[in-house]
Amino acid sequence: MPADQSTIPMRWCVIGAGPSGLTTLKNLLACGIDAEILEREDDLGGNWYFGSASSRVFASTRLISSKSLTAFTDFPMPRDWPAYPDHRQCLEYLHRYADHFSLTQRIHFGVTVTAIAPVLNEVGSRRGWEIAVAEGSPRRYAGIVLATGHNHVPRWPKVPGAFTGPLLHAADYKSPTVPVPVAGKRVLVIGGGNSGCDIAVEASRHAAQVFHSTRRHYHVIPRMVAGRPADLRGERLLKMQAPLWLRRLIGHRAIARTIGLPGQHGLPNPDHLMWQAHPVINDHLYAQIDARAISPRPDVQAFDGRWVSFSDGCREEVDLVIAATGYQLTFPGIDPLLLNSRDGLPRLYLHLLHPDETDLAVVGMIQPDSGQWGITDLQAQVVGRMILAEQQAAQAQRWLARQRQHQPRLSPIDYLDSPRHALEVEHFRYANRLRRLIAGLDRRLRRATSHRAPY
Questions:
Q1: For the domain with range 156-222+259-325, which CATH number is right: 3.90.226.10, 2.120.10.30, 3.30.565.10, 3.50.50.60?
Q2: pLDDT tens column, 362-392
Q3: Are 265 and 290 in contact (CB under 8 A)?
Q4: Strands 143-146 and 12-15
Q5: Per residue in 119-141, pLDDT tens?
């Protein structure tokens, strides 16, 4: 839309007050950049605000990455908390973070963004952004950071036929009683990711029988190995620069000594190497399979009333189906072309920055193989310095522009080709890439200013 004013607004807008939005706001303010958050719910937390429309966690959810590898870079979780905090503690942590850095007064709650569009001048140059909201007049900003997450629109399995019983997506599952009681029922859970495995285990403690359908078998990793979080043991190997083959060998041995490898439970081995798929973190799946409370099944072939056919020719009658089949990546209200999207996926530098524009970023659009919040903290630090470079340091701006034209390899691992892995990154290499960007920008920003930088 054409601009009706000659000046560009100075304030930036962060959309979403979940973990990614909070750390983005904190880092922009730390850089001296005027910013605020628009949040549609009545409180912060995003996915971790259990009971809100935005939340996809269920009552028993806890982290699958340890608190040490999940926390923001400058705000550790309490020492007396368990290694893997539950969703209530996660939400408390986010509130503590917001209070510590005085973020809440910069968050506008109950504001639903309906459209995002660039403001153009008479010659077509961008002069900021206009955001339409359901609750009032449009708002104008210098730039936009999308921090809305990617767990909004459920992806449903494409199964021929029709199932005549209750059919839920994991997005709506909250407990063995909500929204549908599972006690005494024959339950089919579709999906081999972390949510699917967690739901299958939880349902198996109440249901008459749980059938767990997966397209392939995955590597399952326990939370703890010899009294220490498994991801911290893996982190040590990464810091030692252990080769991938050695990390896999050590990983297999650790799993064999804790929960056991698939063959120890009568299951086929996965058709891929460890870490070629997003890891499944679960301590109880194999135990429930051994107890025959969970019956593994291959891919679903068809529905026929209450009957389900599987790709191995087996048929089962079930009372309830829960599809834990992931989510579509969506950013409602903004033209996908503005995000440089192709085939439904924004093609951004490090899944973060537009290759050409400096007034738009997406924080949190990654699927790391460990904790995410500390990584989104680093992403937000990059965004803050990108804005400073645009405002204060032409050399830093040009250097970052050159970096953004070349997408680096984000992992030494060749991931499985599936929607589940479209945003997968190896956390250690990815975080180090962000740290190098931050250091490079800091050096150039310091050279551009004789006074102390405001960050």
A1: 3.50.50.60
A2: 999 999 999 999 999 999 999 999 999 999 9
A3: yes
A4: parallel
A5: 998 887 889 999 999 999 999 99
